[in-house]
Amino acid sequence: MSTETIRSRDNALVKQLRRLGQDGAAGRELGLVWLEGEHLCRALLARGHLPALLLRAESAPHWDHAWALPPSVRRVALADSLLASVSSLGSSAPVGFLWPLPAAVAPEPGRPTVLLDRLQDPGNVGSILRSAAAFGFEQVLALKGTAALWAPKVLRAGMGAHFALRLVEAATLADLPALQLPLLATSSHQGQWLHQAALPWPCAWLLGHEGQGLSPELLAAASQHLRIAQPGGEESLNVAAAAAICLHASAVQRGA
Amino acid sequence: MSTETIRSRDNALVKQLRRLGQDGAAGRELGLVWLEGEHLCRALLARGHLPALLLRAESAPHWDHAWALPPSVRRVALADSLLASVSSLGSSAPVGFLWPLPAAVAPEPGRPTVLLDRLQDPGNVGSILRSAAAFGFEQVLALKGTAALWAPKVLRAGMGAHFALRLVEAATLADLPALQLPLLATSSHQGQWLHQAALPWPCAWLLGHEGQGLSPELLAAASQHLRIAQPGGEESLNVAAAAAICLHASAVQRGA
């Protein structure tokens, strides 16, 4: 096992990292995910996956021997300032992995699902993936227009939930019937109160754009509309907050 | 009613806006909040408040006459590129208000409360303010170390919830007894399941730092520990997602 040290901004790997950090679509194109920081690396290993490459700051050699990675995993040390300059997170995590991006998959029928309709905010998307994994949902479908699920900011907010879920990007409305699931939507003005409703399991929760909500087509496709009681007044909820409440409600009823 | 037009980067007001956008503490120092965008402006007016100043892009004169503001409200047009350059949100909302920052207030006993213990992420803090307002909580205490509640990114994520809440910044542990409320904390390993617990009202929910959770002092001060069922596995929840679930549970029990 040996470690290469890179100090040049023009190195091919450095250029690749820069692209991965800046461009949400680069991951799909290069077939790689860059997992920055100890937490994400650990979460990947906990799911039984191995990275293609371990990347660490030159000043932090102990990471070469962390986690008992097999010698076959390539180790690269990057000059500290260089690593900081290509970080996508504006911080300089001293360690990270490059991991082959999972191949695109099709939706699988019958699996408890969360569907994202054009969600824009990486923090919201990551938070929802985390809630989905915590509450026993297995599959997330992202309709076209949703933030790239493997983008660095979504990965950071997801805190490892990505590795626990079947992630389907570029899904379309035509994928919905094949799910063979009841489709649940929140609504501000129609349907039963969520806290009084009987919720089916498995199901698919439909979550819509931060400003516009669900598209009319999805609202019409929903088999059940549910309202979250908001006694505080006319205020509305952040979509990831609403999602947490809904997915938790499903998980609790399933357990009862 | 007349509108001043500003095109110079060195104008005193422009300098002030730049500081407000860049520095979370500047608002408190200058005694001003900058509300960017139509939604926040509308939310302020809906609560019966008036701005000190209306700020709009030079290319959008119709904003001078929006909302039937009294002539006493100063109108300023900023050259579009100048407005975009001082925007704190990386976007260029064509309209905004400057509003006198509410004077610092002390916690009020007995009011349904949410306490933030060193929360860092502006999106999380804003989302929690929104949930608090939606679920009938009236007061938010931010312990030292929490993101500035009136910072631009928190305001944006709060979507107007700021104006519905009593916001207490720089709170300390010494403020807790004076609240005269049961203090509720979430825990991953002790206490009752949230969905089976009887929750007191009014109460104060304690929410902790994104990575470290609540401080040991706050955990010890809590009168009740509640667990959120997470059948999906070892995953954890984003703090704003957990907050939404807890505050909703309180609201639902209160209504029953």
TrEMBL record, chains A, B:
SUPFAM superfamilies: alpha/beta knot, L30e-like. GO terms for molecular function: RNA binding; RNA methyltransferase activity. InterPro entries: Alpha/beta_knot_MTases, Ribosomal_eL30-like_sf, rRNA_Methyltransferase, SpoU_MeTrfase, tRNA_m1G_MTases_N. The keyword Glycosyltransferase does not apply. Residues 113-248 form the tRNA/rRNA methyltransferase SpoU type domain. The keyword Methyltransferase applies. One of its GO terms (biological process) is RNA processing. Keywords: Methyltransferase, Transferase. Coiled coil: none annotated. This is rRNA methylase. It comes from Serpentinimonas raichei.
